[in-house]
Specification:
By secondary structure, the chain is α+β, with helices and mostly antiparallel strands. The protein is built from 26 helices and 23 strands. The longest helix has 20 residues, at 250-269. It is globular.
């Protein structure tokens, strides 16, 4: 038997590729009064090295010499809006998040020159500005301490680590601030703000996650693909669909090929109605009709003549040797490896204002994967092709229809499991919890699914109901495990029956067995795990991992003390207290529930004290007693409301760009209000937002636009005199992936000359470049000439530009 390459008739993009995504705009900076207070504990819990926190951005008075030579280092250039620039670009999006644990009167850096006032008043803002301005004026080896400290390049180090990558986006913002207050440079740049209806977000190719692949294959072909060994999805802050993290490496391509060929063979064994004729008697017309239907659904867009020609050419070449069935099988296998199947483009077409309008089929795929975690159905594709998905009103109506589809239950449950961090199977000590059987664990999983199903089907779907619902779903075994009365009434499709929790100690999602057992230790409850869960997932205030070398083992069991007493001693240690005052005070409120989610009045013979306290959350701070009061507090908190919206934005867009998404979260939450803040309401608001249908042009992000903080000016000449070209470049080429007939490379070009230039390089390529990003090409006798695009064409001495391309032999 002859063998045929089922990797498909490759066209410009028709190969699984690992490639960098388009460069994005710098996030818009603006005041975020709630989500802007995320408490990143970069300097807390530094073990015994408390003194090492003497300077998140600066240490004691020996940091260096000020530009003005005075004690304070205060030197203001006089830009009229320096305070506004500081607030919008440094304080709200960066410093209020990364500095306010150490650098406060109670923090570990309380003895340094930078102690911030977090009261939120205008006076506090002015004082914080002056502290940072004075630090900017301090020079260490000719460079501002405000740039050296947070980037980890200060000669004396930085106890908080490198919070801001050198020459990264946030570093550039600090650099601009230093220029303004030290040199009077850049005063014309206006402070940015969170403005309504602003287009944000970059153009991306989003690889399907494993869950999305399995559900798409099931909807497309009716085949269960969950048993295949496929590439592992990287997890980014709990989400498995992050666009930047989902890339294919070279070895992944073979895994996808093996799975695609086996899936195709299974389809041909039992094609059902997928093929519009008997495979034994199929002809060219039948194959054409099959691909017309299958290809449109697989690629989730209208087919092109090129698609039809190449896939039919593949079919005919295989059919000639091995028959009709193998020809169709080869088309299926090739399509399942195509980037048009494996990736979801959100690229669009350029509009008159320079932004990119996403194409109707790209919008449809965004909708279906956000709501269903799967491909558009025929009705949605039909509306795309007829132009019915062209307005926000039409998109809202489609959200309503799709939410009624059974697939929405699985899609929304996927969000909840991701948001609440429930995807991992809890590991429990069976000596401590012998009653926590596999049957109980599975019933707890079904409880979560039934709770979410009821919430969006029969309930309001509101955040308030999520937190304060007085119902759940149990079977007899789980009811007994929880200490509830045996359920009466009819069971649902999974054998679970709704029970009224009025009069019990359970309420809403905080007391779901899945949440309580996941966020606990193997043999006991965990105030740290549960407090961290609330802080990060429900309030969107991220906490970094403890510093290296710190002993993070939980307190040892002590029969003379309760769990609370043991953890209170550990959190009262000054080296740990700054962090754990933000965590444990919340986690103690869960202490009526053991490590597997059962209610208790005593903890190993000690009375349970479930009083708690939230600090550092503007609208949620304050004392509470038990999970019931905590649930009520979160349900009414604008912090938690905006966080719920933000988590949907992260999930829907597959992105973690906090600045832009936090801005959208604030706007959407404010527009909806508490009553309309429902699952469907948030999804509709996201789908109606400018970012859902439009993206920024890549050229808007100009990494070479910053000014030298040392006071140097730009190159001589006018805007009409472009820098010369040069051949003084160091070129680093990296092969990202290779497949039969092609591959992809990433290239970094570094300018080694002594003057600004327009870069261009000539490379030998193994084939014809078919997909190029961050560069333009020109064929020549010596090879392919690559040159920069508008935002990376000019290079200063020592500066680099990155680009990439795929080729086809």
């Amino acid at each position: 038997m002859n063998t045929h390459n089922t990797t498909g008739p490759f066209d410009e993009a028709d190969a699984p590729v690992s490639r960098p995504l388009p460069t994005s705009d710098a996030p818009r900076r603006r005041r975020t009064p709630r989500l802007g207070h995320a408490l990143v504990l970069s300097c807390a819990a530094l073990g015994a090295a408390v003194a090492g926190c003497n300077g998140l951005f600066g240490g004691g008075d020996d940091d260096g010499q000020t530009n003005g030579g005075d004690d304070t280092g205060s030197l203001d250039s006089g830009c009229a809006d320096n305070v506004a620039f500081f607030e919008a670009n440094l304080w709200d999006p960066i410093m209020s998040s990364k500095c306010t644990v150490c650098h406060t009167e109670s923090g570990l850096a309380k003895g340094t020159r930078m102690v911030f006032d977090t009261s939120g008043t205008e006076e506090a803002l002015q004082a914080n500005f002056e502290a940072v301005r004075d630090m900017a004026a301090i020079q260490v080896n000719g460079e501002s301490a405000l740039l050296l400290r947070p980037s980890g390049r200060h000669p004396e180090g930085h106890a908080g680590g490198a919070l801001i990558p050198f020459q990264g986006e946030d570093y550039v913002v600090f650099e601009k601030f230093v220029n303004r207050v030290n040199l009077g440079v850049g005063c014309e740049e206006q402070p940015t703000a969170c403005e309504p209806d602003t287009v944000s977000g970059r153009r991306v190719l989003r690889r399907m996650s494993r869950v999305e692949f399995d559900r798409t294959v099931a909807d497309l072909l009716g085949v269960d693909s969950t048993g295949y060994i496929l590439p592992t999805d990287a997890n980014v802050e709990g989400f498995d669909n992050n666009a930047d993290a989902l890339l294919y490496a070279g070895t992944d391509v073979q895994l996808m090929r093996d799975a695609a060929e086996d899936i195709a063979a299974r389809v041909i064994e039992a094609p059902g109605s997928l093929i519009p004729c008997a495979v034994e008697t199929g002809d060219d017309a039948c194959a054409t009709a099959f691909f017309e239907s299958f290809g449109r659904r697989a690629f989730r867009r209208p087919l092109t003549d090129q698609d039809r020609a190449r896939y039919m050419e593949l079919h005919r070449s295989v059919e000639a040797d091995e028959g009709f069935a193998m020809g169709v099988q080869s088309m299926i296998a090739a399509a399942l490896q195509s980037p048009y199947f494996l990736y979801r483009p959100e690229l669009g077409a350029v509009a008159q204002d320079g932004t990119y309008q996403l194409l109707p089929h790209e919008i449809a795929s965004q909708l279906s994967y956000m709501i269903w975690s799967s491909m558009p159905d025929d009705e949605l594709l039909g509306k795309v092709e007829s132009g019915e998905l062209a307005t926000p009103e039409a998109i809202s109506a489609e959200v309503d229809r799709m939410m009624q589809d059974p697939r929405a239950e699985a899609g929304v449950l996927r969000f909840f499991r991701t948001w609440l961090q429930l995807n991992a199977k809890p590991s429990k000590d069976m000596t401590a919890y012998p009653e926590y059987t596999e049957a109980v664990r599975q019933a707890i999983e079904r409880e979560t699914a039934a709770f979410v199903r009821h919430l969006i089907r029969e309930g309001s779907g509101s955040l308030n109901e999520m937190y304060t619902a007085r119902y759940s779903y149990v079977n007899e075994e789980l009811a007994s495990f929880y200490g509830l009365e045996a359920p009466g009434g009819a069971a649902d499709q999974d054998g679970m029956t709704r029970v009224d929790l009025t009069g019990s100690n359970r309420m809403g999602l905080l007391t779901l067995g899945s949440v309580l057992s996941t966020h606990a230790h193997a043999a006991e409850s965990s105030p740290v795990h549960r407090g961290k869960f609330v802080r990060e997932q429900l309030l969107c205030q991220p906490l970094p991992p403890p510093p290296a070398g710190l002993d993070v083992k939980p307190p040892q069991p002590d029969p003379t003390k309760s769990t609370r007493e043991r953890f209170f001693e550990h959190s009262s240690n000054e080296a740990c207290g700054s962090c754990h005052s933000l965590i444990d005070g919340i986690g103690f409120g869960f202490e009526h529930f053991d490590g597997v989610g059962r209610y208790r009045d005593t903890d190993d013979g000690h009375p349970v004290d479930a009083s708690g306290d939230i600090v550092g959350a503007p609208s949620a701070s304050g004392p509470f007693d038990g999970t019931g009061e905590l649930a009520q507090k979160l349900a009414q908190s604008p912090d938690a409301q905006a966080c719920f919206t933000l988590q949907w934005l992260r999930f829907g867009f597959g992105a973690m760009d906090q600045a832009d998404l936090s801005c959208m979260a604030e706007q959407i939450t404010g527009q909806l209000g508490p009553e309309e803040l429902t699952v469907a309401g948030v999804i509709k608001a996201i789908a109606r937002s400018p970012r859902f249908t439009r993206r920024l042009a890549e050229a808007a992000a100009d990494p070479g636009s910053s000014t030298d903080p040392g006071g140097g000016t730009g190159p001589s000449g006018t805007d009409n005199d472009p820098p010369p070209t040069s051949s003084s470049f160091d070129i680093q080429e990296t092969v990202d992936s290779v497949w039969d007939g092609g591959g992809c490379k990433s290239v970094v070009v570094t300018h080694q000359g002594d003057a600004k230039v327009l870069w261009e390089v000539t490379l030998h390529t193994e084939g014809t470049p078919t997909d190029v990003w961050n560069a333009v090409t020109e064929a020549g006798s010596a090879g392919v000439k690559f040159s920069g695009v508008s935002y990376n064409a000019e290079l200063d001495p020592g500066e680099s530009a990155s680009f990439g391309f795929c080729w086809r032999e």
